[in-house]
Write a structure and sequence with these properties.
Elements (H helix, E strand, L loop, with lengths): L1 E3 L2 E3 L15 H9 L10 H27 L2 H15 L4 E5 L2 H15 L4 E3 L2 H4 L12 E5 L9 H9 L4 E5 L5 H5 L2 E4 L15 H21 L3 H7 L3 H6 L3 H4 L8 E3 L4 H11 L3 E5 L5 E6 H6 L15 E2 L3 E2 L5 H11 L3 E6 L2 E7 H7 L3
Parallel strand pairs: 3-4, 3-5, 5-6, 6-7, 8-9, 12-13
Antiparallel strand pairs: 1-2, 9-10, 10-11, 13-14
Amino acid sequence: MMVRGGRRVPRRRANVGRVSAPLSGAFGDLMAKHQPQQAPAGGADEALIASGVRTLDAEAGGISALALAMRNGLGAAFVAAADAIRRARGRVIVSGMGKSGHIGNKIAATLASTGTPAFFVHPAEASHGDLGMITPDDVIIALSWSGETAELKGMIEYSRRFRIPLIAVTAEPGSTLGQAADVVLALPQAREACPHNLAPTTSSLMQLALGDALAIALLESRGFTALQFRDLHPGGRLGALLKFVRDVMHTGDKIPTAPAGARMSDAIVEMSAKGFGCIGIVDGQNNLVGIITDGDLRRHMRPDLLEQSVESVMTRKPVTVRADQLAGEILEVMNSSKITALFVLDAGKPIGIVHMHDLLRAGVA
């Protein structure tokens, strides 16, 4: 029982286990039209794949339209935006609401990691004090597909009041945001991948792609190097790939070497003791003249192997690396040459050795 207006009214029983009759008439037809279409029995997988392909095709069409726009009118605005960012003495402030905000966060992260100091400011929080994060030395990138995002109003007004350069990323150049901006990166109109043309999908991807394009253009125009990239990415696999060979190589007494003219019996003892599966052969000036590997031993296996000189077995002109090369580079060298250890030379003399296992431990491979 429940009480309504001072009277006790009996509760209605829920229609558990009952199937309601289908709606009829114009309203029923309208509802049926907007119900999700059920895939035929046995064709669910094919329907899902077809849906995925349609989404990818739609989003690819948006990127193609963006590339075409870049070759036309958007290109001039793109150059103006890059110039405004290069001239700024401060940082790039990226802002947007909803899906545009998520994309803005990624754009700010990409800019920052490629040498353009940037961070994201939430437009709603900006109107409650976070505008204090923005200085006249900064430049603002505001993302809004419609250009009428109400939460951006405070940031737009703030940028105009303090003459902070404002770059708009919008599909509506004539919008409030577009009219207020110093530079308008006008995105071409494109249909969303969503079948109702509602959920931000193609539009979000186009915003992200344009942000990536801007970040990479700035990177290249500044001559941002892999070594500078390493300074900003010390962690994870990227940080490992950007380590130097000198950071992972073995040095000193750990380097397996034998003098030219030595017997193979002595070389094998040294080779086994150091455990790298190879040994370097050096001349009287300590220059590396050859290398002997486990493979060389197998290829030269015969009864008198131990009595042979190292010169008769060694491989001359072996592949070597420098201490100032990046670990990612030597990983490629090892993979392409199908070898597991490399000697590190300085002016022809071995100063270290690096093994594939060292790259694995460092997180490079």
